[in-house]
UniProtKB/TrEMBL annotation, chain A:
Residues 715-726 have a biased composition (Low complexity). Residues 22-559 form the Clathrin/coatomer adaptor adaptin-like N-terminal domain. This is AP-3 complex subunit delta-1. GO terms for biological process: Golgi to vacuole transport; protein targeting to vacuole. The lineage of its organism: Eukaryota, Sar, Alveolata, Dinophyceae, Suessiales. It is found in: Endomembrane system.
Automatic annotation (TrEMBL), chain B:
Belongs to the adaptor complexes small subunit family. It comes from the Eukaryota. Its main location: membrane. InterPro entries: AP_complex_ssu, AP_mu_sigma_su, Clathrin_sm-chain_CS, Longin-like_dom_sf. It is found in: Endomembrane system. This is AP complex subunit sigma. Pfam families: Clat_adaptor_s. The keyword Protein transport applies. One of its GO terms (biological process) is intracellular protein transport. Residues 1-106 form the AP complex mu/sigma subunit domain. It comes from Cladocopium goreaui. GO terms for cellular component: endomembrane system; membrane coat.
Length: 968, 118
């Protein structure tokens, strides 16, 4: 039997079941579940209403979303309404049935009753998502010009929510929304201004064009709420439009003088403070009004005024009358309200000056004694004092005393700051030292409240101990008694043994310093000091803290060495001769440098013009490049991390960030004579040591130019390296895959007035001694007819060509030509360096008269350095032998760090792919978190006469590349 | 921007909650609980603005019912205006129910309809 219960009945029921509400609610939910099945819409609607109420008590209702949509679709307003209510409460963007509501909204927007439409708009603003918005925006646009103000107002507000979800909608709606600023209805006007305010918060610049209209509304309106919103908009716009503040003076003055609403007045003051330049009459007026607020009896006003004063003081530093404010602030600090007090403290921090600093500190201390959580006060004191190197403090002895007082507070979390300032001041202000030493002694010597406790916080004990030791010469004469009591406190106090190790060490050493300087300042106390050290240090020697024990042993040995012999001890005084001075922040810069750190340790090889793979040009999506998008799998890394600006980094062949994969960067030919410098070698060792710790992918390159005996020359191509236990060959992808990847690496080698030429350099064919190039050309000027494109090679021989002439396109060139292969003779390329192959591009252009005109353009075809490398399978041992046999011949080194923000799931795979593309053979040294790779390649065998500009590398030269990868 | 409006009674029971950004039910319950404890602990002499998590909260007490409005902390809002807004809300409710009391707010969904926000 389904029992219907109204919401009121259920609420009463919940109240009646005090103590076991959840039980009652669970039975109610069970009932609701039944009721939702009902075909009677009224019952269903009531069930949804009850459910909506329970949601507010924290019960889940996501299971009922479909029923909610059903209820929304009924025809009666009374039953429909709970549906809309429930959906605005419970639907989220993830709710799947949300999309079902679109048609409902469309239907209800056209409803006769404005309340039904209003309800739908309201609900839409709550559950809208970008998808819903796109479908519904046109309907909303038409509602914007509805004849009913009620609907216009709701729509304007709803639009804001939609813009948040679906920003493009703003563009289409903007003109219509702007028209609403002229609406006659106050409600619509307010809503529109409000919407623009919220939009302006996101990007104010877009709304400068609204200024004239907004200004007129501000001048005319009497609506407080509207005024506040307008003032806020102007606060956002003023910084962007320099003429605006001057325009605003008049209306603002008007508002300040006439308005009765404090909220508007406050907003106007804030507007003045934020937008107006210093020294104008209106600022003075605003500050005057602010003073009134500050003295108001209303706590809320006082709080806001204080808060705003913070801004005033910051902006108009010099011109505010601070004395009066100072008193006011000090009284505000006493407010019981934590929030207000904090603001007051911040304000105080800003307005103190040397003349009132002492008073302020005294007041704060008084409060801090009264209030229990008093860290705020103390924090303020400390930060005020420390500002600009104690600029506010005039009487340092007095301030030290204050610090001492604070330091006695065992609970304060500022203990270490206090101690730091205490020591810092003594170091900086020599005149205060005699006082400080006496103070330190008295602080340490103070009678403890209970046995085994110190009445001082731990960092302060350390600070006082240090002062006693360091400035014992400053004690009042005769100082025997003080020396003795000092040493006694430092060593005998039993509570010391429970302090942390650092403090104990400080105490021991301070006592030792007293002993060492006693002959000079307190000769009579020497025997007793000696006695003290001897009797008390052994207990420290037994300490469980190693550094305490060590320091105690040292001191004990010193004292047993020098005994009580004053002359002997005086000799040891040199230990402490060097005075301590405050260290400047930039002191490091004054240390003379033996090495020039600015100078790079290695000669950084000059960046060559980068050989970038062709990429889709966003401006010209139809360019050829787009069809050859290179997708090597780490492209994502390239999209996310823009390559560092340094061209040197990106153009190097081992730059993993982007174009390593393209395998087309260039490397330096080792043509540089093997000039080996000793210091360089040393620096390299250092660098290597550092590199081990560097948490980055580091790629290190060594170009080795070693004549004479070496490992076997270029022989077997890719083979398995003799693997030792921890090494294994990097998985280099099969040739087919590499060829496939390589086939995508197109690059522009010429882009002229009429024609562009693209080239893709393939792996060299070792047996045939050939390098294959794929070539294509593209017509750039669509208006002219271009035909018979050919490329004339002169430097090298090209297989199956007539005199090195490769025809790219015979006959008229359409959009782009087909791929044309050219096999160059690889034997003249002997050096692994970038090579610009000179050739000539020939084509004919038909001009206006229909005459063909032959064109010749010189083209440089750039072949990347890695083209001329041959993988060299070399085991770890063979490699180290090779390096150790030819250490003096490491002529070139560069290193480079590359980091990936994205995680690279399979690094060996990636390195293998890169190595394969660049014709390296690689082994991996360690696996797991940190990995090392060694890549080796040799140059092409030199057989023919080298090309011009190419000096042959020694026949067995190797290029070794070491990479260390660290996973962060 | 107003982030939420709560009406909570002195016992800490939420009588009405309207959120303008999505929070899960669990978050809502803890937020309401913490907030009302905070408000209850404040005396008459303290000001009506509290900072809570990322919100700046403005509250006002009418008899045993607290009206609590949460605003974005980053933007500066006019706290006084919010106080006035709360009062307007109360007056509206008062007109509608003719002398509004806690029970009315509790039992009546039309209240939501009246939460037409600035």
């Amino acid at each position: 039997m389904v029992f219907e219960k109204s919401l009121t009945a259920m609420v009463k029921g919940i109240r009646a079941h005090r103590g076991n509400e959840s039980e009652y609610i669970n039975t109610s939910i069970a009932e609701i579940k039944k009721e939702i099945q009902s075909t009677n819409m009224a019952t269903k609607s009531m069930a949804i209403l009850k459910l909506a109420y329970l949601t507010m008590l924290g019960y889940d209702m996501t299971w009922a979303t479909f029923a909610v949509v059903e209820v929304m679709s009924t025809n009666r307003f009374g039953t429909k309404r709970p549906g809309y209510l429930a959906s605005s409460i419970s639907f989220t963007e993830q709710t799947a049935v949300g999309l079902l509501t679109i048609n409902l909204f469309k239907k209800d927007f056209g409803s006769q009753s404005q309340y039904e439409t209003g309800m739908a708009i309201n609900c839409l603003s709550n559950i809208c998502s970008a998808e819903i918005s796109r479908d519904i925006i046109t309907d909303l646009m038409s509602l914007l010009s509805s004849s009913r103000a009620y609907l216009r107002k709701k729509t304007v507000l709803c639009l804001y929510r939609i813009f948040l979800k679906d920003p493009p909608a703003l563009k289409t709606c903007f003109p219509k929304l702007k028209d609403r600023l002229g609406d006659e209805d106050q409600g619509v006007l307010t809503a529109t201004v409000n919407t623009f305010l919220e939009l302006a918060r996101k990007n104010a610049r877009n709304y400068l064009s609204l200024v004239p209209q907004l200004y007129h509304i501000l001048v005319k309106t009497t609506n407080n709420w509207l005024s506040i919103k307008l003032l806020k908009v102007f606060q956002l716009l003023s910084p962007l439009e320099p003429r605006l503040p001057a325009k605003l003076v008049e209306p603002l003055t008007n508002i300040l003088n006439t308005t009765k609403a404090q909220s508007v007045e406050f907003e106007a003051i804030r507007c003045v403070v934020r937008t107006m330049p210093e020294g104008t009459a209106i600022v003075a007026l605003a500050i005057e009004k602010l003073q009134v607020f500050l003295n108001s009896s209303d706590r809320n006003l006082r709080f806001l005024a204080l808060d705003l004063y913070k801004e005033v003081v910051e902006k108009f530093k010099a011109n505010t009358s601070l004395t009066e404010l100072h008193d006011k602030v000090l009284t505000s600090i006493e407010e019981s309200d934590v929030t207000a007090r904090r603001v007051a403290l911040q304000l105080l921090d800003r307005i103190v000056n040397p003349s009132n600093f002492q008073e302020a500190v005294q007041r704060l201390l008084e409060f801090s004694r009264k209030a229990m959580p008093n860290d705020e006060f103390i924090g303020t004191i400390l930060s005020m004092a420390a500002r600009d190197r104690y600029a506010l403090v005039e009487d340092f002895a007095w301030y030290l005393l204050i610090l001492g007082e604070i330091g006695r507070n065992m609970d304060s979390s500022y203990g270490s700051t206090v101690a730091e300032q205490f020591v810092d001041i003594c170091v900086r202000v020599p005149q205060v030292r005699p006082y400080a030493v006496t103070l330190a002694l008295s602080l340490l010597d103070a009678p403890a409240e209970a046995e085994n406790t110190l009445s001082l916080c731990t960092p302060m004990v350390g600070a006082c101990a240090w002062l006693l030791g360091e400035y014992n010469g400053e004690m009042e004469k005769p100082s025997e008694a003080q020396f003795l009591s000092g040493a006694k406190v430092l060593l005998t106090s039993r509570s010391l043994q429970v302090l942390d190790a650092a403090t104990q060490t400080q105490c021991i050493w301070a006592a030792t310093k007293l002993y060492l300087s006693a002959p000079e300042h307190a000769p009579a106390a020497v025997p007793e000091l000696h006695e003290l050290l001897n009797s008390h240090l052994p207990s420290f020697v037994r300490s469980t803290h190693l550094d305490v024990s060590e320091r105690a042993t040292l001191s004990l040995n010193m004292s047993s060495f020098y005994k009580a012999d004053a002359a002997g001890i005086a000799a040891a005084k040199d230990l402490l001769a060097e005075p301590l001075l405050p260290v400047k922040a930039d002191a490091q810069a004054q240390v003379p440098l033996s090495i020039d750190l600015e100078e790079p340790f290695f000669v950084v090889e000059e960046a060559q013009a980068s050989f970038m793979p062709v990429r889709a040009d966003p401006k010209d999506p139809y360019a050829l490049a787009s069809t050859y998008k290179d997708d090597l799998g780490i492209l994502a890394a390239r999209e996310e991390v823009p390559a560092p600006a340094a061209a040197a980094a990106t153009s190097s062949m081992y730059y993993l960030g982007s174009n390593t994969t393209s395998a087309t960067a260039e490397t330096e030919a080792p043509e540089a004579a093997p000039e080996v410098k000793d210091p360089l070698a040393q620096m390299r060792e250092r660098l290597e040591a550092q590199r081990a710790a560097a948490p980055k992918y580091q790629v290190m390159r060594e170009d080795v130019a070693a004549p004479g005996p070496g490992p076997a020359g270029p022989g077997p191509s890719i083979g398995q390296a003799p693997a030792s236990s921890s090494t294994c060959a990097i998985p280099i992808p099969p040739e087919k895959e590499l060829a496939d990847l390589q086939g995508r690496l197109w690059t522009v080698c010429h882009r002229g007035q009429h024609v562009a030429v693209y080239v893709c350099v393939r792996s060299p064919h070792l047996r045939k001694r050939q390098i294959r190039l794929d070539l294509r050309c593209e017509r750039l000027d669509a208006s002219l007819e271009i035909a018979d494109v050919a490329l004339q090679f002169s430097q090298v021989q090209v297989e199956s060509s007539v005199c090195g002439r490769i025809v790219l396109c015979s006959g008229p060139l359409q959009q782009r030509s087909a791929k044309v292969k050219a096999n160059l003779d690889s034997s003249p390329f002997v050096a692994p360096g970038v090579f610009d192959l000179r050739c000539e591009l020939e084509y004919t252009v038909k001009n206006d008269g229909g005459e063909a005109e032959a064109q010749k353009v010189p083209v440089e075809l750039r072949l990347p350095a890695t083209t001329f490398l041959v993988p060299q399978a070399l085991g770890e041992d063979a490699m180290s032998d090779y390096i150790s046999e030819n250490p003096e011949l490491l002529s070139h080194q560069t290193s480079q760090a590359v980091s990936f923000e994205k995680s690279v799931s399979d690094l060996p795979m990636l390195v293998g792919r890169c190595a394969g593309l660049c014709h390296f053979h690689g082994i991996q040294q360690a696996s797991g978190q940190d990995m090392k790779f060694i890549l080796v390649a040799a140059t092409l065998p030199a057989t023919a006469t080298p090309l011009e500009g190419q000096s042959a590398a020694p026949s067995n030269a190797l290029v070794i590349c070491r990479c260390a990868a660290l996973v962060r | 921007m107003i982030k939420f409006i709560l009406m909570v009674n002195k016992q800490g029971q939420t009588r009405l909650a309207q959120y303008y950004e999505f929070l899960s039910v669990r978050e809502r319950v803890t937020l309401e609980g913490e907030l009302i404890r905070k408000c209850l602990s404040r005396s008459e002499s303290q000001c009506s603005f509290v900072e809570y998590r990322d919100y700046r909260v403005v509250y006002r007490r009418y008899a045993s019912l607290y009206f609590i409005v949460g605003i974005d902390n980053d933007e500066d809002c006019n706290e006084l205006a919010i106080l006035e807004f709360i009062h307007t809300l109360v007056e509206t409710l008062d007109k509608y129910f003719e002398n509004v009391c806690e029970l009315d707010i509790m039992c009546e969904p039309p209240v939501y309809a009246q939460l037409e926000v600035c």
